[in-house]
Amino acid sequence: QVQLVESGGGLVQAGGSLRLSCAASGFIFSIATMGWYRQAPGKQRELVATITYENRTNYADSVKGRFTISKDNAKNLLNLQMNSLKPEDTAVYYCNVQRLLGARIDYWGEGTQVTVSS
């Protein structure tokens, strides 16, 4: 079965960095389109970044130039490098798999908390 397990969250000061990882299993990782989403208290879940199986990336305007999404197909890991963190980046971050080649699927991890202090 599909499993997505996030790690790497924590507490960091504004301006700092964190690297999130998502360990994936149960599907062919190399053909997956995946994404990171986040949900802050009292707000809807929102897109952070996506990456296709061809390594095409897409970012929310709020994180462009600060965050980098990447896939490690050898280790079945989805990563999110977050630099220049701001208090408004505070949220639970979720890993998502949304396509295998052209076929749509939808699985989520349980999330990892990121807290940025001012």
Comma- or semicolon-separated keywords:
118 residues, mainly beta, four-stranded antiparallel beta sheet
User: How many alpha or pi helices?
Assistant: 0
- The gross shape turns out to be globular
Terminus-to-terminus distance: 40 Å
Query: How are helices and strands ordered from N to C?
Result: EEEEEEEEEEE
Mean pLDDT: 97
Count of distinct strands: 11
**Which range best describes the helical content: under 10%, 10-25%, 25-40%, 40-55%, 55-70% or over 70%?**
under 10%
Largest sheet: 7 strands, mixed
Overall radius of gyration: 13 Å
Structure classification: mainly beta
Low-confidence stretches: none
What percentage of the residues does DSSP assign to strands (E)?
over 45%
Task: Walk me through the topology.
Blueprint: E1 3-7, E2 10-13, E3 18-25, E4 32-39, E5 46-51, E6 57-59, E7 67-72, E8 77-82, E9 91-100, E10 103-108, E11 112-117
Parallel strand pairs: 2-11
Antiparallel strand pairs: 1-3, 3-8, 4-5, 4-9, 5-6, 7-8, 9-10, 9-11
Describe the protein in words.
- Strand 9 and strand 10 (103-108) form a beta hairpin.
- The protein starts with a strand and ends with a strand.
- 31% of the residues are buried.
- Helices cover 0% and strands 58% of the residues.
- By secondary structure, it is mostly beta strands.
- The strands form 2 sheets. Strands 2, 4, 5, 6, 9, 10 and 11 form a 7-stranded mixed sheet that branches. Strands 1-3-8-7 form a 4-stranded antiparallel sheet, with no helix packed on it.
- The protein is built from no helices and 11 strands.
